Amino acid sequence: MIRNPYMPQEAEILKIFQETDINYTFRLKTDLKVKSGQFLEVSIPRIGEAPISVSDFGDGYLDLTIRKVGRVTQALHNLQPGDKFFIRGPYGNGFPIDKLKDRRLIVAAGGTGLAPVKSLINQYYNDSLEIKSLQLLAGFKSPGDILFSSELEKWSKKFPVEITVDRGSENWKGRVGLVTKLVADLDISEVENTMVIVVGPPLMMKFTTQEFVKKKISIGNIYLSFERKMSCGIGKCGHCKIDDTYVCLEGPVFEYSKAIQLLD
Amino acid sequence: MSVDTKKLVKNAYRVTKERYLTALRVRVPGGHLDTKQMTLISRIADRYGRGEVHITTRQGFEIPGIPMSRMEEVNREITPLLDALQKTTGIDLKVTFEGYPAAGTRNVSACIGNRVCPFANYDTTRLAQDIEGIIYPNDFHVKIAVSGCPNDCIKAHMQDVGILGQVEPLYDSKRCIGCKACVDNCRKRVTGALKFHNFTVQRDHEKCTGCGECILKCPTAAWTRGEKYYSVVIMGRTGKKNPRLAAPFLRWVARDVVLKICENLYSYIDKHIDRSLPKEHVGNIVDRTGYPVFRDEVLQNVDLGERAMVAKHINFGGYEYHSNASF
Amino acid sequence: MGYKIYREKFADLFHELRASYEIYAPVTKKDKGMYSDTDLITYDKVESFTEIVFDKKTFFSPKEIVFPIRQTLFYFTEDSVLEPTKLEKDIVIFARACDINSFRSLDAIFLQNGPYEDPYYKKLRQRVKFILLPCDGFENCYCACLGTNITDNYSAYVDVRDDAVYCKVKDAYWKGLWSKYGEESEVEPRYVSKNENTFEIPQKINNSIFEHQMWSEYTNRCTGCGRCTVVCPTCTCFTVHDIRYDDNSKYGERRRVWASCQIDGFTEMAGGHGYRHKQGERTRFRVLHKISDFKKRFGFQMCVGCGRCEDACQEYISLKNCIHKISEIMAEEEKV
Ligand SMILES: Cc1cc2nc3c(=O)[nH]c(=O)nc-3n(C[C@H](O)[C@H](O)[C@H](O)COP(=O)(O)OP(=O)(O)OC[C@H]3O[C@@H](n4cnc5c(N)ncnc54)[C@H](O)[C@@H]3O)c2cc1C
Ligand code: SF4
Ligand code: SF4
Ligand code: SF4
Ligand code: FES
Fold it and tell me: What share of chain A is helix, strand, coil (3-state, %, to 5)?
């Protein structure tokens, strides 16, 4: 009998955290070993499967932060702690932890893009990521879309966290504008020793990256996490292919020098 | 010069506005003929006429400018046309050197059909010729046209009897990739008979016109051709009194049903025609007898088959010239 | 070992073969062509030797035998996930060299790409034996340019000529069967050595091709119907769907179904994001996959030059013509 990589495993929901109106974080009971930046194929039988990044993990659990946009994500949002759903994976390469070692790191995240980098940031917060410094730039559509508010609060006590929203509201006292603006305003001290991770919607990634390049960050020091339609996660279905590269296999995290070669 | 105009007309000539000149009407069932016949037609036009040929709306040829005195010669010369007519339609004309034996029943016209057109659901030329074989020669004034698909390029809806090709599309869900090309096309171009549910296409037979476009759209041959069927529309007409489009009479009937009702139509006319008039158009007869009489007589001894649908009643509509409602 | 077997005898041999195998071969499906009164030449299960069509190219390829258009991955009951377990006979496929070679491309994706083998593909694939058919080439083929005109991957070779079938048997297991019905004879497979169309596939395709205006022509011409990909013996893309049965919503299945990079929705994600919206971009993606991207990963061309994509395209879009254009553009760039 060949092992069936499409066969999902059942996992129990330990806890659900509501982040925003449409983003919930599900804490699952599992011993699966995962790396920051990897993703799982999550499914509910008879509804469907969807690739979801691991937003955090720890002893005996992992977190998935899921935005309600369609069939599967809607059905997931209807579940309660104690319910179960199915997972398979982890898939993809994850962030290059070894390359970050002893460097200064800037993370620029747009919207749900904060989810895949959350575990990395938490590792730094918990002193288990060996980097010299961390700076987080996060952009959201509106104050109501801000994810992981308590974490952001907690993190900002330890390292610089800049938050901006596209559209403010009456009670919003923070910044209004795009993440690109935050980057433009940055004063990067050790350009050669700085690594950058950019995660978010396609346009946000495109312009934010260009902004970092303007700041003289080498294209070999910038990492992006791609999002593509995926039906298998294991290099068979072809949906995620760009040229000769499969995002589910060689990605989703790509060095920018490689990413600019991936033409669509 | 003494000319029996009734005889002349029956012989497929015409009384024209030019005295002593006539025009010959050449039958071309299905609008299809070979180049030998074309050459002969042009030779006759050169030799007896003005070197001109007119193409009629019924897909025949009309050769104008023929002196009435030369009709006999012309009739002898068109013998190959009548021989060819016998051959393609299976009619036995007995003599073929005396010109056409009748002109009342008009040439059966057809769109180009599946010998060329991708949309056509059958060989329209063949059906037109077979119908001609059953109804010709005949003096009753009847217009029949056959169309390859419900697009009705031949305007079968303007005929006494219009025949439209249908096909029953067969769906094999195992071959369907769910591209929805069939569903979108049916919604945009046809009747919206297809629905996509649970990654499978569902067809509403009530709405389906049997045009077969889903089969043409499907990249994987999940839709394939099932049985051929025909729908029949009746009593469309132009004219000075009450022009109207033909109304649906039968749907989902087989080819032999089509042939049989064409045959029965002539018995019906024979039984009900008002012989006190110089001629009576079949549409007017139906107006007089009413649709149910027409239906019952035309469908007599016809095995309609399981799929067939027969119109329960028909409201022909159209407009009356004397009703000035729109003005 | 070669054999000459009279037709009637071969029918008996075939009958015996059929007892142990499911046999697939090119057949004529009467009146099943897209247009009325036309036939469809395609692969199907055959019961008798006489059903096989030897002189025509099939419209669809044999890939659907091992990679069904729709394939159930799991059945769901209220509380379990079950794999389909249908035990079938081994499979014999009558195929020409290009089609046998196309399985090499399928194998690369399903068995080699990524860390896992695809178990559904493998289950069917490992049961397959090929019977090679001779080929004299057809319109639009260019196998000889790709070297896919020849193969060694067959158990037997069968060439029907006049009253006899000339065979070569490589599979030791089958030799007994063949020798029972025929006399020994010297037989070597007949391959196409030169197609009507000969050209070279460019070895190096620069990234400049992505921006080239040559693709805009396809934006105007291609309708995105996907025929070129569904008929291709080497296209492997699929999408996975879950189904909830209408008659019992507690039951359902997860299945995969062929997908096409030419059809809308291939890259579309929740949120409305997508890539390659223009048909020209999709054509570029398909063509480069066939003649360049795949090769970068696996070392050989994905396309086997069967010409089916061109046969099937209703807009008369020709892959060979497109490759030719790429070659010219690359040659032009070399010069500069
Ligand atoms: C590597 C990777 C990591 C990912 N990580 C995460 C993650 O951590 N968290 C997360 O929430 N998502 C993540 N996604 C995205 C997630 O996979 C999709 O949101 C999910 O597949 C949607 O599935 P669904 O069945 O709910 O939607 P479907 O029902 O499949 O999609 C609905 C369809 O409707 C349309 N649609 C849906 N939503 C919208 C919208 N908002 N606007 C316009 N049209 C819309 C789209 O055309 C879409 O095809 C990730 C994707 C990838 C590839
Ligand atoms: S066109 Fe064919 S493959 Fe596409 S949805 Fe219709 S039946 Fe299915
Ligand atoms: S791309 Fe065209 S020629 Fe090449 S294998 Fe596919 S169908 Fe055949
Ligand atoms: S078959 Fe032709 S029209 Fe259809 S998607 Fe392919 S190239 Fe475009
Ligand atoms: S997700 Fe299927 S190949 Fe990458």
Answer: 25, 35, 40
Helix axes A149-156, A114-125, angle to 10 degrees: 40
C interface test, pick of B149, B171, B179, B201 with most C CB neighbours within 10 Å:
B179
- Distance CA(B243)–CA(B246), nearest Å, equals 10
Q: How far is the CA of B171 from the centre of ligand 1 (A)?
A: 31
Asked whether the predicted pLDDT for residue A128 surpasses 80, the reply is: yes
C95 in contact with B at a CB cutoff of 8 Å?
Answer: no
- For an interface test with B, the pick among C29, C32, C34 (most B C-beta atoms closer than 10 Å) comes out as C34
Residue C155, burial from CB neighbour count under 10 angstroms (0-12, 13-18, 19+): middle
Write out the two tokens for C317: 């879009």
- C259/A237 touch (CB, cutoff 8 Å), yes or no: yes
A230 lines ligand 1 (CB under 6 A): yes
Evaluate whether A46 touches C252 at the Cβ level (below 8 Å).
yes
| Residue having the nearest C-alpha atom to atom 3 of ligand 5 | A235
The string of pLDDT tens digits covering residues C48-67 is 999 999 999 999 999 999 99
Strands B194-197 and B200-203, how do they pair? antiparallel
Phi-psi map region of C23: left, alpha, beta (phi>0 left; psi -120 to 50 alpha):
beta
pLDDT for the residue numbered A1: 54
| Ligand 3 within 6 A of CB of C233 | yes
Chain C nearest-CA distance from B122, in A, is 6
**How many Cβ pairs within 8 Å bridge chains B and C?**
73
CA of A51, nearest ligand number: 1
Q: What is the Å distance from ligand 2's center to B225 Cα? A: 14
Domain that holds residue C161: 2-184
Distance A224 CA to ligand 1 centre (A): 19
| Distance of CA A120 from the midpoint of ligand 4 (Å) | 45
The model carries a pTM of 0.93
Task: Please state the ipTM of this predicted complex.
Answer: 0.94
pLDDT at B46: 98
Band of the pLDDT at C272, cuts 50, 70, 90?
confident
Tokens of C82: 């079950």
Does C227 contact chain B (CB < 8 Å)? yes
Q: Is domain A97-259 in CATH 3.40.50.80, yes or no?
A: yes
According to CATH, what is the number of the domain B5-89? 3.90.480.20
* Touching chains, C (3+ CB pairs < 8 A): A, B
Q: Please state the rounded mean pLDDT for residues C159-181.
A: 93
Query: Considering only the top CATH level, what class is A9-91?
Result: mainly beta
Residues C82, C158, single domain; the answer is: yes
Residue C191 lies in a domain: no
Beta bridge partners of A25: A17, A65
Q: Which fold has domain B109-165+227-310?
A: Sulfite Reductase Hemoprotein; domain 1 (3.30.413)
**pLDDT at C157 > cutoff 90:** yes
Confidence category of residue A191, pLDDT binned at 50, 70, 90: confident
Q: Per-residue confidence at A172, pLDDT binned at 50, 70, 90?
A: confident
Question: Chain A neighbours among C 6-65 (CB < 8 Å)?
Answer: none
pLDDT category at A2 given cuts 50, 70, 90 is low
Q: What is the pLDDT of residues A218-251, one digit of tens each?
A: 999 999 999 999 999 999 999 999 999 999 999 8
Contact state of C257 with B178 under an 8 Å Cβ cutoff: yes
**Spatial separation of the C-alpha atoms in residues A243 and A261, rounded to whole Å:** 9
Question: Both C161 and C212 in a single domain?
Answer: no
- The answer on C177 and C38 residing in a single domain is yes
Asked if B173 reaches chain C (Cβ–Cβ under 8 Å), the answer is yes
- In our burial notation (b when 16+ CB lie closer than 10 A, e otherwise), range C1-24 reads bbbbbeeebbbebbeebbeebbbb
Q: Which stretches of chain B drop beneath a pLDDT of 50?
A: none
